Amino acid sequence: MRTELAGKAVLVTGGASGIGLACVRAFREEGARVGVIDRTPGDGVEVADVTDDAALASAVATVAGRLGGLDVVVACAGISGPVGKPVAETTAAEVAAVLAVNVTGQFLLVKHALPHLGDGGAVVLLGSDSAFTAAPGMVPYCASKGAVVAMTRALAVEVPGIRVNCVCPSVVDTPMARGDLGDVLDDPAFPVQQAADVARQVLYLASPASRPVNGQALLADFGMSARSAFPA
Ligand SMILES: NC(=O)c1ccc[n+]([C@@H]2O[C@H](COP(=O)([O-])OP(=O)(O)OC[C@H]3O[C@@H](n4cnc5c(N)ncnc54)[C@H](O)[C@@H]3O)[C@@H](O)[C@H]2O)c1
Fold first, then answer.
1. In sequence order, what DSSP letters do the residues of 163-222 get, joined into one string?
2. For range 138-143, the mean pLDDT
3. Which domains are present in the chain?
4. Into which family does the record put it (predicted)?
């Protein structure tokens, strides 16, 4: 498949680590010009917190100015929040913090990127399989990713000329997942994807190769959610 991303101007948030970093590398391999926003400083990273409206607006304008506009925006900045904590012990502040980064942060990114995105632009948000299936101890995260899927559809119908889709991967071996699951990922009893796997899904949704695909959630979970309870 030809991605036709060579020369395109791409903005990736959360590009200092994990899936975002893999996306930065994958877009560069396709010949795209990539700008990065992250709260963690790094080589070529425009430092901003996606929950800080003014700082994010300024960082998006800086990256778009440097690249001469934007063709693609990828929202990888995200947090997992209090994974493994029962509802009874989870505070309102913890829920608010997860929603602020995973939902409001992605909303603000799209809002500030829109003036720089031309017709035919593509936005890829980071959802998760947690929008569709759940494990105990992840209520705030699951709620945030369900919101990303709904926001993807809402943005897709609101913004003519710009496609908005999201990827919804199952567990990916990144610093975030290592922080939550630890050594389990050294020899997992469940399928695990690499950040580069997700980057390829993002490339597809960012590319004109997916031209008719809009407002969709690409659930990539090795078929785990497809299994019915039927005993066969
Ligand atoms: N790792 C998984 O298993 C998995 C599965 C499905 C979806 N996701 C989603 O993929 C995205 C990336 O996750 P990852 O696993 O690569 O995590 P990661 O922790 O490796 O990387 C996340 C990056 O986002 C940045 N970031 C976090 N909060 C920020 C903020 N407020 N402002 C700016 N930057 C911020 C971090 O500095 C980091 O560089 C997240 O939205 C996550 O929910 C991850």
1. EEEEEEES-B-SHHHHHHHGGGGGS-SS--B-HHHHHHHHHHHHSGGGTT--S-EEEEST
2. 98
3. 9-218 (3.40.50.720)
4. Belongs to the short-chain dehydrogenases/reductases (SDR) family.
